[in-house]
Every structure is written in C-alpha cells, then in structure tokens.
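It is worth pausing here to work through a concrete case rather than discussing structure prediction in the abstract. The textbook approach is simple: state the sequence, then state the predicted structure, then interpret. We follow exactly that order.
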Amino acid sequence: MYILSIVYSLITKIRNWFYDKNLIKIEKVDNVNVICIGNIVVGGTGKTPCVQYYANKYASLGKKVAVISRGYKGKRTVDPLIISDGKKILASVTESGDESYTHALNLKVPVVVGVNRYRAILLAKKEFNIDTVILDDGFQHRKLYRDKNIVLIDAINPFGNNNLLPKGKLREGLYALNRANEFIITKSDNISNEQKDEIVKKLSTYNKKISFAIHKPLKLCSFFNNEIIDFNMIQGKNILIFTSIENPISLKNSINNYNPNKIIIYEKRDHSDFYNIDFVKIDKIIEKNNIDYVIITEKDHVKIKKIDKNIEKFYIFKIKFEIME
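Step two, the predicted structure:
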C-alpha cells in the first residue's frame, strides 16, 4: 500500500504541475459563474447536501442555476445527459447515479451529468440559459475553469490519516488545499471544541476563509407511505442503519442523540448497489434483534427499487445542511 501511495502521489503531483504551468488547456464557459464544491479525501464529507444548499442559495438570489456532476456510477448511452429540467425528472437513477438523482429529487433547478463537465455546462447553458453552475465534486477536475473552490473538510476525519490513496483516503497531497478559496468544516457538531481548534490551526496556514457546518436532522420519512415521524419516536427503540455511504459515524451519532436502545449498522462500500442478498441479510437482522426502525439515507433510498418484506420499518433520514454563523 505504501509503495502504491507513493506512485499515486507522484502521478497527482505531475498532473497538477502541468495544470499549474498552463501546459494543459483549461476550458471556460463564457458568462457562467462556476462554484465548485469538492473535497480532498474520498467520500464522507457531505458534498450532496452542501451542493443542494448552494443551489438553493443562488437560486433564491435570482440566479439561473444548474447543478453539474460527473454522474458517478451512472450507466448511460448519452453523455452529457439532462437528469432534471428543474420541474420534472427526465432520467433514471441507473443513468444518473445516486447523488445526481438525489439532487434531481430535491432541487427545482436543472441537473446535468457528464464525464466531460465542460460539455455538460454547454448543454445546460443552451437548454436553460443558465448563468450559475454548482459543480458537484469538481475540485480534482482541473480541466474546467471555476470562479470559486469551496473545499469541504470532514470534522471526523479531516485529512484522511495524512496518507494518499490507497494507504489513506487523500485524493491529493495537502498542498492542493492552496487552490481552495474557502473551507467548510462539515459535521462539526461531532467533535469537541479542542478538535475544532486543531483543524482550524492546520487550515489557517492556507490563509482562506473557514466556516463550520452541521447536518441538522430534519425528519424521518416512511419508505412505505411517506408518513413523517418525530425523531423522539426512536427513543428506547432498536435501530438498524442500512447504508452505503462512505462514513456512517455522523449518521449514527445523530441517531444516538435521540437515545435509542441499540444501533446496529449494516454497511456497504460507498455508492454500492443493493441486491436481493442484502435484503435477505437485513430481514435476518431485523428478526434476530427485534428491530423497530431501519434507517436509510436519501442517497441510499433512490437505489432501492423495492422491498418485499418489513417495508413498514424502513425510514429515510432527511437532513438539512446548515452553515454556522
């Protein structure tokens, strides 16, 4: 792993050097303001709710906004592809990928995916006359010009154990943080003030704006009939978290705040699909542990096509991204 991390580090440094020296052309779409939401580690920083926060923010200011994403793990024959026109969803979760489909469900702005983000923006501009783009997970996509880089730092594991992939979780060396215009420390309610100070101390060396954000629990929504229940309903209950997000610790901590009897986590790799065998295992866990509620995230919810058994126990955990002023 260590040798592979060294090789990976060398490749990323060479790639960044080419961009820094303008030896690779950076593509820019005229008259479109690009706000990039990204991170420096693999997954788990809360990009999805943050992207939706900024899309809503700029739309509320009267901007013509589109969300642009690679559409990770989406399988499509057309690329770039319009997932939503802001009013109606026009593609499937299979084509869009889970994150982009979640944006389409929750936002009233166009969502376009494409491996080539430049072409995706051109399509959005042509079809919707946009003037603002929220670029989802684009910090490492240096081929596209952006007006602002907002880098999310996960409070629980801010710097990926200081090791690059595959030994650690860093996508680039920390030197890359010099490209950021602003840092947002996400899930900041999961750490102590002393831990916050340590992260701020490290980030302060880059001389950028630093903010804190939380993922505020919003509601629990039934997968079965869309019924909304109060979080206090899980007090004293047996909870199963069923998820394929990168870091479920924050979700577990949020649920723990409502004093359940116990929490069990059934965890798959980030962005993994769910199969029949998963639900067979889930049913066994439910029966063995007398589970009252199975809690899933919004990103996981869009990947579940149907549940044959215990569907009444499945609830979607909805959150709101809040920047602490």
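Step three, interpretation. The radius of gyration is 20 Å. The longest strand covers residues 209-222.
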